[in-house]
Amino acid sequence: MSIISVDTIAASNAPLLEQQKSDYAHLGGQLARRGVDIDAIKAKVKQFAVALPSWGVGTGGTRFARFPGRGEPRHVFDKLQDCGVVHQLTRATPGISLHLPWDHCTDYSELRGKAEAQGMYFDAMNSNTFSDQKDQAHSYKFGSLTHTDASTRAQAVEHNIAVIEAGRQLGSNALTVWIGDGSNFPGQQHFRRAFDRYIDSASQIYKALPDDWRMFLEHKICEPAFYSTVIQDWGSSYLAANALGPKAQCLVDLGHHAPNVNIELIVARLIAAGKLAGFHFNDSKYGDDDLDAGSVAPYRLFLVFNELVAAAHEGVTGFNPAYMLDQSHNVTDPIESLMSSAAQVQRSYAQALLVDRVALDAAQDGNDVLVAAQLLKKGFETDVTPLLQQARLEEGGAIDLLGCYRASGYRAKVAAERPASQGGGGGIV
Ligand code: PSV
Ligand code: MN
Ligand code: MN
Question: Complex ipTM, two decimals?
């Protein structure tokens, strides 16, 4: 089922075909001189998928204000359709990661059917115990899975189990748990007891996982708790995942670390421990900025992929990370931003595939520092645009993502169908 007509995509591609052919041949020639078969890289890129966050197709905003865009999705079916546009043009985003209760739906089999008709499926499910829902018995103001009150913890556990059940109906096979639990004042929370309560609650969720499911524990240094967070870094996440069992692993959201932390090193450690669940890709300058992937620090994203490609190349047992975007938009059309992030993630993957692993091993073993550094730079500095475009073209996508999307008039069309949503501010300035 196409949302953007096949003719629109073909019309957008037509004037670019000749130039695309020659650019791809030129890059192919350059890579061949390096002993790299461009078609083999292209085949791998085509296999690569990054899931879309359902919440990413709406405009998010900051703590201070939200500026809604035109044609904001009204419900999960609209979100699915917007995700379908991203996938149709990029051919790289067949998975959708839902967030409950934001994406609550009365008929999950209908939702699943619609996704499948778009050639899509449901990736990891996300629970939400970081905000209170209407008519909820116990507030999460002072925590959820780690709350001092047993009934509040039980309510949070129950919600997670309900999310697993919804995910089962949708064909998902993973639950991502991120909690905002922590403290804002020294002394507010007994650190060790709060962590013990986390393990106790999380074990009850773990027990409810179907056999073929995984549980992704997402750490975050701070926010909304600004003095301490219960699962604040990969250390706590790893301890928890270890305590829970083999189905529990650690999810790395690129924006959830202190500035300058070496994320690719964390990734390598988690791979070695068999505990890398996967990623929430985004970019940041200061904190959990949720900017488009690779928009600020593309080399960092490449270095993360360098670790991933190395692990795949070396056949590390059990290596099977889940790839998802997690970003928030306040000043761009979310569909445009998601397309650009998906292409950026693919780009970093393709660039990492170009690194000469044999030469890098030799340079590392021989302590030839500059050659090792240059081998990475050589991959990163290769403009793989014609390769990405060719992969999309052959799969029925758009050579020029932005141009095609804008020419389709999709945003104007949904703006006419969907009522304008309210903006607003956090009221804290
Ligand atoms: C928290 O900052 C987070 O990264 C988690 O993944 C949430 O589920 C997501 O953002 C959406 O708010
Ligand atoms: Mn995240
Ligand atoms: Mn985040």
Answer: 0.99
**Residues around ligand 2, an ion, CB closer than 5 A:** 253, 280, 326
CB atoms within 10 A of CB 135: 5
| Per-residue 3-state assignment (H helix, E strand, C coil) for 324-378 | EECCCECCCCHHHHHHHHHHHHHHHHHHHHCCCHHHHHHHHHCCCHHHHHHHHHH
pLDDT tens-digit readout, 287-315: 999 999 999 999 999 999 999 999 999 99
Question: Best substitution site from 125, 131, 145, 178 to test ligand 1's pocket, by max atoms within 8 Å of Cβ?
Answer: 178
Measured from the Cα of 126, ligand 1's closest atom is: 8
Which CA distances in Å does 239 have to 113, 177, 179, 273, 411? 38, 15, 16, 11, 45
Residue nearest to atom 9 of ligand 1 (CA): 326
Residue bearing the CA closest to ligand 1, atom 3: 178
Q: Are 281 and 346 in contact (CB under 8 A)?
A: no
What's the whole-model pTM score?
0.97
The alpha carbon of residue 365 and the mean position of all alpha carbons in its chain are separated, in whole angstroms, by: 34
pLDDT-based confidence at 427, cuts 50/70/90?
very low
Between CA 232 and CA 236 the distance in angstroms is: 7
The rounded Å distance from CA 253 to ligand 3 centre is 7
Mean pLDDT of the chain: 96
Domain extents for the chain?
A: 6-425
Pocket-testing residue among 52, 123, 326, ligand 1, by greatest number of atoms within 8 A of Cβ:
326
Res. 425: pLDDT tops 70: no
Q: How many angstroms separate the alpha carbon of residue 197 from the centre of ligand 2?
A: 22
Q: Which two tokens stand for residue 325?
A: 């975007």
Asked if residue 62 has pLDDT above 80, the reply is no
Residue nearest to atom 7 of ligand 1 (CA): 178
Mutate to test the pocket of ligand 1, among 237, 254, 280 (most ligand atoms within 8 A of CB): 280
Categorize the per-residue pLDDT at 419 as very low, low, confident or very high, splitting at 50, 70 and 90: confident
243-253 residue pLDDT tens: 999 999 999 99
Nearest to 288 by CA among 298, 280, 277, 299: 280
Superfamily of domain 6-425: Divalent-metal-dependent TIM barrel enzymes (3.20.20.150)
Shortest-distance Cα residue to atom 6 of ligand 1:
178
CA of 219 to the centre of ligand 3 (A): 9
Buried b (16+ CB within 10 A) or exposed e, 45-60: bbeebbbbbbbbbbbe
